[in-house]
Every structure is written in structure tokens, then in C-alpha cells.
Design a protein that fits this description.
Elements lengths: L17 H8 L5 E3 L12 H6 L4 E3 L2 H11 L1 H27 L7
Helix pairs in contact: 3-4
């Protein structure tokens, strides 16, 4: 069995670091990518695909989630409610940060 590594790099849009990380780890095989945070724009990963030099394997987690939600409306509604709650909490958190001179978290 070949050893594997999990490397979390964060956003690649402004400062791409994936090519350097792959070089430092001497990666020669496929690389799984998770872009679910982009939601419906998950497939708009041309720059990342370019950085991976064709070795990227898109996991399409958001797309898969949408299929599950389509098949289970009750689960979809529960997910929407949870997301709305998280957005409300984020807005409250951001207001509190601004009130104490903190930095806005988008």
C-alpha cells in the first residue's frame, strides 16, 4: 500500500500554493479536490485543475449533496434551516466584532 497524505491548503484564488505543496511532498499520483464550499460553483475550478496539472480528482461533494436533498425533501428542509441559523449566528458574530473594533469575518 502506498502512503498517502492529507494536506489542507485553503483558498487558491489569490495565492495559489497547491503546486508548491505537491512538489514539496513529491506527489506523482492523483489528488482529490474538495470545492464544496463554492456550492453551486463547485465545478468552476479551471485554475485549480491547471495548478494540479491534470492530476485532480473532483469529489463533487456539493453536487452529491444536492442529489440527496432532491431525493429527501425533509432532509433538505432541515439542512436549509440549519444553514439559515448559521447565517444568523454569523451576522450576530460580525456585529459583535465590529462593535469591539474587530475584523469582519465574511
Amino acid at each position: 500500500m502506498t502512503p498517502s497524505a492529507v494536506v489542507l491548503l485553503g483558498p487558491q484564488f489569490h495565492v495559489p500554493t497547491v503546486a508548491n505543496a505537491l512538489g514539496a511532498l513529491d506527489v506523482s499520483g492523483p489528488v482529490a479536490t474538495v470545492t464544496a464550499g463554492w456550492q453551486e460553483w463547485e465545478g468552476e475550478d479551471a485554475a485549480l485543475v491547471h495548478q494540479l496539472r491534470g492530476r485532480g480528482v473532483r469529489l463533487s461533494l456539493y453536487e452529491r449533496s444536492e442529489r440527496v436533498w432532491s431525493a429527501d425533501p425533509e432532509l433538505a428542509e432541515a439542512h436549509r434551516a440549519a444553514q439559515n441559523e448559521l447565517r444568523a449566528l454569523r451576522r450576530l458574530y460580525n456585529r459583535q466584532l465590529v462593535a469591539v473594533g474587530g475584523v469582519w469575518v465574511g
